[in-house]
Amino acid sequence: ESLISIRQLSKTYQRGTQPVPVLFDINLEIAEGEYVSLMGPSGSGKSTLLNLIAGIDKPSSGSLLIDGVDIAMLPENDLASWRASNVGFVFQFYNLMPVLNAFENVELPLLLTDLSRAERREHTETALAMVGLADRMDHYPNELSGGQQQRVAIARALISDPTLIVADEPTGDLDRHSADDILNLLDRLNVELGKTIIMVTHDPKCAERARRRVHLEKGVLLSGSGGH
Ligand code: ADP
Ligand code: ADP
């Protein structure tokens, strides 16, 4: 049984009256606990596919089941709450709130839950300790290095204990040393916490850290798509 099951999926954006086909007949099965990198040239459709998997966008045709849930069939409200509890997002430019410190950024998703203040604090401190930033909780994003900001973002992605972590060029803005730190951290989330990780990257060095590599070329899946 796959965690993610994509069958004959196509995606066409609409630009005015002009259809822009981006993904063609994608078939992909990903099991729970896998660590997959999604590679391909710029414009090949990587982010589009990642956004579909994360429930940010819906396929134009075909099906996308996650944990048996057909994403395309969920009303927008249900999709948003499904996303909040099942998917953690990591972006290239961290997307932290500049006016909130590290603790507050990580705690943010929990403000929408009914956890008590003490429970929120405990979860937030645990997540920040997990990424090695227990001593930086009161730092604001502009007081942290790029690698540290990305670790805050990863703690925030973990805070709701999602099954799936999606990362779009998570090391794209980092030097090699900080990038390695982040890749080591993602590796631990996969091995120690059993998180399913899907990482978009155009950097082969990053991609090789994943246990499975999938290639997109002009909207078509080339290899590693597996399936059963
Ligand atoms: P990648 O992540 O591989 O660089 P993307 O998925 O971002 O590729 O984009 C694939 C193609 O889809 C590109 O040609 C891009 O211009 C187009 N595209 C992406 N988003 C939209 C959109 N919202 N509307 C129209 N075209 C889009
Ligand atoms: P790295 O080389 O690891 O990317 P930096 O050289 O950016 O890190 O930062 C080194 C240390 O200085 C980090 O621990 C960071 O928390 C701290 N730091 C960076 N920028 C600021 C700042 N504007 N105010 C306070 N501390 C900062």
TrEMBL record:
GO terms for molecular function: ATP binding; ATP hydrolysis activity; transmembrane transporter activity. Keywords: ATP-binding, Nucleotide-binding, Transport. GO terms for cellular component: plasma membrane; transmembrane transporter complex. SUPFAM superfamilies: P-loop containing nucleoside triphosphate hydrolases. Residues 4-228 form the ABC transporter domain. InterPro entries: AAA+_ATPase, ABC_transporter-like_ATP-bd, ABC_transporter-like_CS, ABC_transpr_LolD-like, MacB-like_ATP-bd, P-loop_NTPase. The keyword Nucleotide-binding applies. Belongs to the ABC transporter superfamily. Macrolide exporter (TC 3.A.1.122) family. This is ABC transporter ATP-binding protein.
